[in-house]
Amino acid sequence: MSITVYPAIDLKDGKAVRLLEGDMDSATIFNDDPAAQANVFHEAGADHLHVVDLDGAKQGQSVNGDVVAEIVESFPGRVQVGGGIRDRAAIDRWLERGVWRVVIGTAALTHPDLVREAALALPGRIVVAVDARDGMVTTHGWSEKSDMTAIDLSNRFADVGVAAALFTDVGRDGLMKGCNVRATSELARSTRLPVIASGGVKGLVDIADLARHASEGIEGVICGRALYDGKLDLRKALRLARDEQI
Fold first, then answer.
1. Alpha helices of the chain — where are they, by DSSP H?
2. Total tally of structural domains belonging to the chain
3. Model confidence pLDDT, tens digit, residues 27-70
4. Is 233 marked active-site?
């Protein structure tokens, strides 16, 4: 079975950056022109993109909105966007601007009714971000740790039309330690939601390992620093994810 590869563009101060474990002070700038970076990914064969407004996640409202809009307008494929989306108006605004799916993190924990109502009204357009450290959900740009497990948060929205649970192992994000395939597959087996893996992808081995668990409910994988650092060849990753020989 195949999975979807989502190259990631994280935005801080209008630039494409990568963080270490979600630490805003650890940002490394990789491209001053995020829309151009999106086109680089498209030219390599990507037809999906994952964009995060890091400043928005911290402040609870869109900060890099104009930059996100430029990416959506220039990228021919499907773009899912997260970061600071805390109310229905923000959800509707992004969908009206051509975003494929909206990713909701903090509000999924603090305002679950928002997610339920939006997912029921917009089936297949809402993704719940399940950002966890040691199995427990984190919020507000990963700066605060809750008392809810990743599995419980995912199951909270299993029957309302949510498109997927985006599971990030915060302790691995940006460090290229390898994706936590074990925790991702455990979550996939424990919820009816398709699961997108994120955090720590270091190379083709992670893509292959996740693809082997596709039948358990793993729908895709987000790749960031490994792409920017040249440790992961996007063309090969896409072929491997599609169950092609490389």
1. 34-43, 54-59, 65-74, 88-96, 106-110, 112-121, 150-156, 181-190, 204-212, 225-228, 234-241
2. 1
3. 788 889 999 999 999 999 999 999 999 888 778 788 888 999 99
4. no
pLDDT classification of 151: cutoffs 50, 70, 90: very high
Q: Could you list the residue range(s) of the whole structural domain that residue 98 is in? A: 4-241
- The CA distance from 100 to 222, in Å, is 16
How far is residue 108's CA from residue 127's CA, in Å, rounded to a whole number?
10
169 is catalytic: no
Q: Answer yes or no: is 226 within a domain.
A: yes
Report how far residue 170's alpha carbon sits from residue 189's, in angstroms, rounded to the nearest whole number.
20
User: Is 165 domain-assigned?
Assistant: yes
Share of the chain above pLDDT 90, in %: 69
The pTM of the full predicted model, rounded to 2 decimals, is 0.91
Q: Comparing C-alpha atoms, which of 183, 118, 189 is closest to residue 157?
A: 118
Residue 119 sits in a domain of what CATH number?
3.20.20.70
Q: How far apart are the C-alpha atoms of 58 and 31, rounded to whole Å?
A: 21
Assigned domain for 203 exists: yes
How is 46-75 classified by DSSP, letter by letter? --EEEEEEHHHHHHTS-SSHHHHHHHHHH-
Set 53, 55, 131, 169: catalytic member: 131
In this predicted structure, which of 5-19, 116-130, 171-185 has the lowest mean pLDDT?
171-185
| Within a domain: 211 | yes
